[in-house]
Amino acid sequence: MTYCVGLFLHEGLVLLSDTRTNAGVDHISTFSKMQVEEVPGERMIALLSSGNLAISQAVWNRLQEGVWLEGERHTLRDVPTMFRAAQLVGAAVRAVFEADGPALRAQGIGFDVALLLGGQIAGQAQRLFMVYAAGNFIEATADTPFLQVGEHKYGKPILDRVVTADTSLVDGVKLALISMDSTLRSNLTVGMPLDLLVYREGTQAVALRKRITEDEPYFRLVREGWSSSLRDAYRAMPVPDWV
C-alpha cells in the first residue's frame, strides 16, 4: 500500500507521496509513486498513484505512449485542458483493466489503483483530481482543498482541522509532512523515503521537487516537534470532574 496527499491551495499545489511497495512481509521495495509531465511555461501535470504497482505503472506507460479519447490519441503533454487530462487518465485505467482485469481475477487479485492528478495548463485554472479504479474521478474545491489516496485515515485528522484554501504553500508543506508522519507511525505499509512536489499557481513549472529521507533535518524536526506538542496538549487537558 502507500499514502499520497494533495493540497489544493490558492497559492498552488502541495503533493506528497511515500515510496514503499509491499509484496508480502519479506518483500518490501522502494518505488517512486510520483510522475511529472512538465513543459515549463506551458504546463505542469503530476500524477501520484496508490494500489497495485503493476497496474499504476501500466497506466503511466499507456499515458506516455498515448491513449485514445473521443476518437483522438493523446498524452498528458498535449491534452488541451486539465479536465481532459483527468478523462485521459481514466481512459488509461479502463484500458489497463480491459487488458489485465480477466487475468487478475483468475489469480484472485483485485483491480486496485487510485491516482491523484494535479497541475495547470497555461491560461487555465490549476486543478486537482482523484481518479478511481473505475476511471471516474472527483475534483478538489475550495470547500474541500485536499485529496488523499491509499492509507489515508491516519493522516486525515490534521488536514480536516487545519487546511483551508487560504493555507500558504509553506504551511501546506508542513501540514502534508505532519499528515504523512502520522501515517508512517501507524501503518507499516507506508514508508520512507518521501517524494515532495510544490507548485506555485500560474507558473506552469515545478517550484520544488525533493526526495525526503530519514536523515532529513527538517522532517526529523517535524516528527519530534509534533509528537512533543501532542503530548503537551494531552497533559494540559483537565481531568474530567466526574472521574
What does this structure look like?
The chain is of the alpha+beta class. The chain has a single domain, classed as Aminohydrolase, N-terminal nucleophile (Ntn) domain (Glutamine Phosphoribosylpyrophosphate, subunit 1, domain 1, 4-Layer Sandwich). It is 34% helix and 31% strand. The strands form 4 sheets. The chain has a 5-stranded antiparallel β-sheet with strand order 12-1-2-13-14, with helices on one face. The protein has a 5-stranded antiparallel β-sheet with strand order 5-6-9-10-11, with helices on one face. The protein has a two-stranded antiparallel sheet with strand order 3-4. The mean pLDDT is 96.
Shape: globular
Query: Which architecture name does CATH use?
Result: 4-Layer Sandwich
Number of strand elements: 14
> Any idea what the CATH superfamily is called?
Aminohydrolase, N-terminal nucleophile (Ntn) domain
In CATH terms, what is the fold-level topology?
Glutamine Phosphoribosylpyrophosphate, subunit 1, domain 1
The structure class reads alpha+beta
Task: Please give the largest β-sheet.
Answer: 5 strands, antiparallel
- Average of the residue pLDDT scores: 96
The CATH class is Alpha Beta
Low-confidence parts lasting 5 or more residues at pLDDT below 50? none
Count of domains:
1
End-to-end Cα distance: 41 Å
Strand order of the largest sheet: 12-1-2-13-14
Q: Helical content, roughly?
A: 25-40%
Q: How much of the polypeptide forms β-strand, as a percent range? A: 25-35%
Number of H/I helices = 5
Helix-strand string: EEEEEEHEEHEEEEHHEEH
Radius of gyration: 19 Å
